[in-house]
Design goal:
Length: about 350
């Protein structure tokens, strides 16, 4: 077998921000059905570890270009974590103060990561759900004159997926058919931006949207109310707490509404939270792909599509982030800190260097 060699990327970067995007598409070799080809677009390769690095960068740079964001102005945003981590990276690199509002229900490591990157994190009660942290960000922006990132409403969100994510996907499948793209939604930026391009340039690609089975907002058919700024004004009645962090806030974002109104999606699959956890664990243990619950849930939807897909179909699944920001969530339930009986047996199979007690 040939030993692997590397030669470098052939370029040096002026900023960590220049490394956002161009994430790899990776074949699934062991856990996909044999009659189809399953690939994942692994967004954990972004510098702050998630797909949200893309929109965080574009929201800030677009606001800089048109003057909405002033030098030194504080940025504020509501987030379940990944957008906040991406914004913290961007604001650290560019020198903007950042305040994040986040429900206390989301994983502890997310708030610690944002604080490590220099952001302030204001927690809101879990009983107020995502709408609580969202409303708190609006209050803080209005009172203090801060720049509201508006990930759920701004066109800057879907725009970056139109100009980067979609182009990367077309490039990775140049000369081949892409039969299915499977993705979940948080803000809806990925499906809206990629949908614009695939509908125009790869119209035979079926776009499959996935959402939590117990928080199936799109499936409900009800669209929550919004104000003149397209900001949600209520918590969606179909929402219930779910373990798929990053998916489905308790309202349908305006960014997602574009994909729904323009019929960018060809199917909608409801995924139980335990399925997302199970497939995330399998991706790690059997493919070496370490990703989060939302990625596992998207993969679960893809496996449902794959079961009936024609032979030879190419299926691409969006994996939004790394698994490291889920350590305190049910994803890691049952993963012990101490040695198992089998590990103790292995240790005791040779005489030295054994733990005592």
């Amino acid at each position: 077998m040939t030993i692997r060699h590397t030669t470098g990327r052939g370029q040096r970067y002026d900023s960590v921000l220049d490394t956002v995007g161009n994430t790899p598409t990776i074949r699934i070799n062991r856990i996909a059905p044999a009659h189809v080809n399953v690939f994942v677009k692994f967004e954990a390769f972004n510098p702050a570890g998630s797909v949200k690095d893309r929109l965080a960068l574009n929201i800030i740079e677009a606001a800089e270009r048109d003057g909405r964001l002033k030098p030194g102005q504080t940025v504020v945003e509501a987030t379940s974590g990944n957008t906040g981590i991406g914004l913290a990276m961007v604001c650290a690199a560019k020198g903007y103060p950042l305040v994040i509002t986040m429900s206390e229900a989301f994983s502890v490591e997310r708030r610690r990561l944002m604080r490590f990157l220099g952001a302030k994190v204001v927690l809101t009660p879990k009983e107020q759900k995502g709408f609580g942290m969202y409303s708190k960000a609006l209050e803080l922006a209005d009172k203090n004159g801060w720049f509201l990132a508006s990930q759920f409403e701004t066109a800057d969100n879907a725009d970056i997926h139109e100009t980067t994510t979609a182009r990367e996907i077309l490039g990775d499948f140049a000369g081949e058919k892409l039969d299915y793209l499977v993705t979940g939604y948080g803000t809806g930026g990925t499906v809206a931006g990629v949908g614009r391009v695939l509908r125009a340039e790869s119209p035979d690609t079926k776009i499959i949207l996935a959402e939590p089975a117990n928080a199936a907002l799109v499936s409900s058919g009800y669209v929550n109310t919004r104000n003149a700024e397209n900001q949600a004004t209520e918590s969606h009645p179909a929402f219930a707490p779910h373990p798929i962090q990053g998916w489905t806030p308790d309202f349908i974002p305006y960014v997602l509404q574009e994909a729904l109104d323009k019929e960018f999606t060809d199917g909608l699959i409801k995924v139980p939270g335990p399925d997302g956890i199970a497939w995330s664990r399998r991706l790690a243990a059997e493919e070496g792909i370490f990703t989060g619950i939302s990625a596992g849930a998207s993969f679960a939807a893809a496996m449902e599509i794959a079961s009936d897909a024609p032979e030879g179909s190419n299926i691409l699944v969006m994996l939004p982030d790394t698994g490291e920001r889920y350590l305190s969530t049910p994803l890691f339930d049952g993963i012990p800190e101490v040695m198992s009986d089998e590990e103790i047996e292995i240790s005791q199979s040779t005489p030295g260097f054994q733990m005592q007690g």
